[in-house]
Amino acid sequence: MCSTLHFVPRRSEERGHADHGWLKTYHTFSFAMYQDPKHQQYGPLRVMNEDRVSPLTGFGTHPHREFEIFSYIVSGELEHKDSMSNVEILTRGDIQLTSAGTGISHSEKNSNKHGVPVHFLQIWSIPSESRLKPAYYTRHFTDEMKKDKWARVVASVDDEGVNREREGEGTPAPVHSGLTMYATILSSGKTLEKELNRRKAYVHVIQTSSDENAQGAKVKLSDGAGGELVLGEGDGAYVAVNSSSAKLLVENISGSEGPTAEILLFDMDA
């Protein structure tokens, strides 16, 4: 039986990394001072930074244009302010998406006064059309909505079930890119299946362990036809989809009573 999916690992320790004291960050793709021609983008996915920001610090006001920018909050509080008069404090389970279009400026800070860092992923995708009108969206997904199931947290703006309301719970944020982003919190011993409808996919296992150097959860990817790959926390995988009927199997293999695994899956155009 021929493999319907081809996996290429993107190991956590091979990502770009910077420790600025107030910011500890890992870059899946080339970003800032980290540049690697082998990891520039994948499909429309251009940036995926896993950031930890110390209390009362953050990113000052800076401009963006022509990117779809979304933040996935893992823990802590992220204060967002922008030139569209949006001011919001985002917490665990929140997804915030800014369609930068013709241009916006924003700041992102950890305003927590009790010594709690914020851990979030900032993700950029390339829009399918240029010079869009800037827009701002937030969505919230409880842990229960993601427990041992796929939650569709971001989806192409014209996909079924996607609306352009500014806020919402349990419905995907609209993105002007050919991608769908799913999230799950997968219990040890559990397996999820996902049919992949586009040419490429990317999987990221979030580093949720309290100790950044801890081994944490282990996840096995497979296609049911011989293709397999094991990932740890902070690891990712490029996935080439070789069949129109390809299905991805994701299993938490952390062992009896092992930790849950928080996983992001991107189903994308080539």
TrEMBL record:
Q: Which residues form the Pirin N-terminal domain?
A: 14-124
**Tree of life domain:** Eukaryota
CDD domains tied to this protein: cupin_Yhhw_N
InterPro entries from the UniProt entry: Pirin, Pirin_N_dom, RmlC-like_jellyroll, RmlC_Cupin_sf
Pfam annotation, one family: Pirin
Q: Which family does it belong to?
A: Belongs to the pirin family.
- PANTHER family found in the cross-reference section: QUERCETIN 2,3-DIOXYGENASE (PTHR43212)
Instruction: Give the protein name, as stated in the record.
Output: Pirin N-terminal domain-containing protein
Which organism was this protein described from? Candolleomyces aberdarensis
Q: Could you read off the lineage of the organism from its UniProt record?
A: Eukaryota, Fungi, Dikarya, Basidiomycota, Agaricomycotina
